[in-house]
Write a structure and sequence with these properties.
- The chain is α/β, with parallel strands linked by helices.
- It has a domain of 241 residues: Type I PLP-dependent aspartate aminotransferase-like (Major domain) (Aspartate Aminotransferase, domain 2, 3-Layer(aba) Sandwich), CATH 3.40.640.
- The strands form 3 sheets. It has a 7-stranded mixed beta sheet, with helices on both faces. It has a 3-stranded antiparallel beta sheet with strand order 10-12-11, covered by helices on one side.
- The radius of gyration is 22 Å and the shape is globular.
- It comes from Streptomyces xanthochromogenes.
- Pfam families: Pyridoxal_deC.
- Belongs to the group II decarboxylase family.
Length: 391
């Protein structure tokens, strides 16, 4: 995709002429079309492109702002907090939170959700040490620096999940410190899922009573919850806060996420009346008004059963991709219950065309809802053609 850069996009001193405005409109229309066509080869990133919210265009003509607490009105009346609360309630139920216990809001994405959960844990336990696996999301070390908490990376096991014996040893070496633990449900490297109940047992065995367990389920939370064989991943398995992505399994034209925590924990960070007549218990304060509407619309369309069927389709496509990649000699590996398939990286041109991330000679195929068997077949045909050309 050739997006103009440099002087082509320079903002000048004078207003654009009518001709210039029309040229800019044509430029933007062309780029949007190129991005739309590029969806046909987007198979290497954990983002869902199977959505269409063009009917919501009228919301682009107003300035909406979900400022302050999602549970309170503010003096700014152009908001979508009623939709935000519906989205939060859906995910709180999915995450096993007892009725009326969970607080949540729609964030700008997984990093803000992780920041909120870990900020809450730091406020609960100011002396806490942050433990997270070496395969945790890249936002975790950054958040540790922002919050000025000690960060201890913990080794992973053969599947890429946190090694519980290594975690136990690290926690036991700091017996007087509280533990702020990140449990990753769906690593970006291979989709591995940390053992949340096992983390709880490990902390108990080490005698850690002061703890905050944050689940980063941005990638794999919905897979864990809705797969044919669900896995423990949220409040009913020991989590104190949970991060979920909105633009991955559900789909959205902009990054967004959901963070959940317990109401009584959030009270310690709430600032009464701080945000134009509303309490503020969020990171951003002013928040996107459109993302909650997008999520609400898609969840209403799918329902819980439709979302579960979407998850099952992704897993079936991952199984199919594993078989097809094995048949063309790409040596795939695939953890059961995940939609990530690792395989020998093809030529750079193939990786670029198909948007395949590749690390240490292995490429990532991620079967998100828009990725079909036809995509897999075309990719495998290119890989097989490349191998034949080398012979």
């Amino acid at each position: 995709m050739s997006i103009p850069t440099g002087g082509d996009l320079t903002i000048g001193e004078q207003p654009r002429t009518a001709q210039g405005v029309e040229q800019d409109r044509e430029l933007l229309t062309g780029i949007a079309e190129e991005m739309r066509l590029a969806r046909d080869h987007m198979v290497g990133f954990p983002v869902n492109l199977d959505f269409d919210h063009q009917d919501l265009a009228p919301f682009l003509a107003v300035h909406g702002n979900n400022v302050g607490s999602p549970n309170e009105p503010s003096e700014y009346h152009l908001h979508s907090k009623q939709f935000e609360r519906c989205v939060v309630d859906f995910f709180a139920d999915l995450a096993g939170a007892p009725a009326g216990v969970a607080f949540g809001y729609v964030t700008s994405g997984g990093t803000e959700s992780n920041l909120f959960g870990l900020y809450l844990g730091r406020e609960r336990h100011p002396d806490a040490v942050l433990y997270a696996s070496t395969a945790a999301h890249y936002s975790i070390p950054k958040i540790a620096r922002l919050l000025r908490v000690e960060h201890v990376p913990v080794d992973v096991d053969a599947e890429g999940a946190v090694d519980l014996s290594a975690l136990g040893a690290e926690v036991a070496s700091r017996p007087d410190r509280a533990a702020l633990v990140v449990v990753t449900v769906g690593t970006t490297g291979g989709g591995a899922v940390d053992d949340l109940p096992g983390v709880g047992r490990t902390l108990a065995e080490a005698g850690v009573r002061r703890r905050h367990v944050h689940v980063d389920g941005a990638f794999g939370g919905l897979l864990a919850a809705l797969a044919p064989r669900p896995r423990p991943w949220a409040f009913d398995a020991g989590a104190d806060s949970v991060a979920i992505s909105g633009h991955k399994m559900i789909g959205s034209p902009m990054p967004c996420g959901i963070v959940l925590a317990r109401q009584h924990d959030v009270e310690r960070i709430r600032v009464p009346g701080a945000a134009v007549g509303s309490d503020d218990d969020t990171i951003g304060g002013s928040r996107d008004v459109l993302a909650p509407i997008l999520l609400w619309q898609e969840l209403r369309r799918l329902g819980r059963q439709g979302l579960a069927e979407r998850v099952r389709n992704c897993l079936r496509t991952a199984d199919y991709a594993t078989e097809r990649l094995r048949a063309c000699g790409a040596r795939p590996s695939h953890l059961a219950g995940t939609n990530t398939v690792l395989f020998d990286a093809p030529h750079r041109t193939v990786c670029d065309r198909w948007n395949l991330l590749h690390v240490k000679g292995r490429a990532h195929l991620i079967t998100m809802p828009h990725v079909t068997r036809e995509h897999v077949d075309r990719l495998c045909a290119e890989i097989a053609g490349e191998a034949a050309a080398e012979d």
